[in-house]
Amino acid sequence: MNVAETEGDFIVRRSDGLIAYMLAVGVDDALMGVTQIVRGADLLASVAPQLALYAALDYPLPAEYIHVPLATDAAGRRLAKRDTAAGIATLQERGVSPEQTLGALAASCGLWPASQPVTLDELLAAFDPAQMTAAPTALEL
Questions:
Q1: Which residues lie across from 13 on neighbouring strands?
Q2: First to last CA, the chain
Q3: Residue 71: per-residue pLDDT
Q4: Which residues pair with 137 in a beta bridge?
Q5: Pair 9, 38: CB distance under 8 Å
């Protein structure tokens, strides 16, 4: 793989001196021995540069990557803490149970019927990555 030809240059140290995400996450994953990586679909383009960094640093490559669709609100905006989306504590304060939250997240990926709470054990027993949707889906809570 030639990242220079397919992706081009990427930043490993920001102009303010901080280590950029691409390098930090790759080193962190490798040093922790992470072999299976699950990230949002918005980070799919970062796989090639990360693999190039693994090779340059002589780290073992992760065995598996999977990118899940982004959770969005009803207007299609990405749910992210940096965008002040409701967190778990806010959902709990509103009376949303952990099973309802997990069910909504699983439904947004196509892994569980919409509006159906689920326990972790139930979801793991039914888990089939082939059923996952690729498109972002509104999280209904």
A1: 19
A2: 42
A3: 78
A4: 71
A5: no
Look at strands 36-40 and 64-68 and give their pairing: parallel
The ranges of the chain with pLDDT < 50 are none
Q: Would you say the pTM of this structure is higher than 0.85?
A: no
Both tokens assigned to 79: 């749910």
Q: State the pLDDT at residue 41.
A: 84
Instruction: Note the residue count of the chain.
Output: 141
* Same domain assignment for residues 58 and 75: no
Task: Among 68, 103, 118, give the residue marking a domain's end.
Answer: 68
The answer to whether 122 touches 96, Cβ cutoff 8 Å, is: no
Domain boundary among 68, 101, 120: 68
As a whole number of angstroms, the distance between CA 10 and CA 12 comes to: 7
Give the closest residue to 113 by CA, choosing from 102, 121, 125, 129: 102
User: In 1-141, where do the E strands start and end?
Assistant: 36-40, 64-68, 71-72, 137-138
Check which CATH number belongs to the domain holding 79 and give it. 1.10.1160.10
Separation of alpha carbons 2 and 9, rounded Å: 11
As given in the structure block, the two tokens for residue 59 are 């780290």
